[in-house]
Write a structure and sequence with these properties.
It is built from 13 helices and no strands. The protein is an all-alpha fold. The longest helix is centred in the middle third of the chain and has 17 residues.
């Protein structure tokens, strides 16, 4: 079955789209030229069948990540989202490897959802999140800052404060953007908390601009 879906993707190769999609991602990765709706159509039956799995097929996940074409990285993440309830706390080391492999905002922001579900189910992983926030890797930092984006009233504000404060002096666009996004999203739930945070911390102009959107 995994080989079938890989061959299905290759068979749908679209040269014109591949060039455009690669250019959009600053030519960091080659593409097959399969936009998200097309990928969803091609992988629907495969992913539905995998929801019946009783264990994570990590061989398949890393097989996808070893391929150069970006759509296979997306496929691996879509698979993990389909079977996320099978993930255990011990799997965080494998997730970390995915975050730091073939890294760019598109894959990392999708993995956010996987991490978000894991931390809700395994709160002990918050210690790992703190390690991510203090890492030298900007993508681990981004995950640490943004994984609570959809938590709303479940947001751990103490943790959010800490991971942002670890990165207040960052000059990295993707880190400062993440700070702004995290605060902006939480402002939809608690404007006062976010406003107080902005006023009491020296954030980058980018972070302030993003964070203040709904205040």
């Amino acid at each position: 079955m995994p080989i079938d879906i890989i061959n299905t993707f290759y068979s749908a190769y679209d040269t014109d789209n591949a060039i455009k999609m690669s250019a959009y991602m600053k030519n960091n990765f080659p593409f097959l030229g399969l936009p998200k709706p097309k990928r969803a159509e091609l992988s629907k039956d495969f992913l539905n069948s995998k929801k019946k799995d009783t264990a994570i097929d990590w061989v398949f996940v890393f097989l996808c990540y070893d391929k150069p074409e970006r759509e296979f990285h997306y496929l691996a993440i879509d698979y993990l989202l389909a079977v996320k309830k099978l993930l255990t706390a011990d799997d965080i080391s494998r997730i970390e490897k995915l975050i730091t492999t073939n890294s760019w905002w598109d894959s990392v922001d999708s993995i956010d959802t996987v991490v978000a579900d894991m931390v809700l189910r395994f709160p002990e992983l918050k210690s790992t999140i703190l390690c991510f926030a203090n890492s030298d890797n900007i993508w681990l930092k981004r995950i640490a800052i943004d994984f609570q984006l959809q938590y709303k009233d479940k947001t751990d504000t103490e943790l959010l404060s800490t991971v942002i404060e670890c990165n207040l002096d960052s000059k990295e666009f993707f880190v400062n953007k993440a700070i702004g996004w995290a605060l902006r999203e939480y402002s939809k739930t608690n404007k006062e908390w976010v406003s107080n945070f902005i006023n009491s911390h020296k954030l980058s102009p980018l972070s302030v601009r993003e964070a203040s959107k709904y205040i």
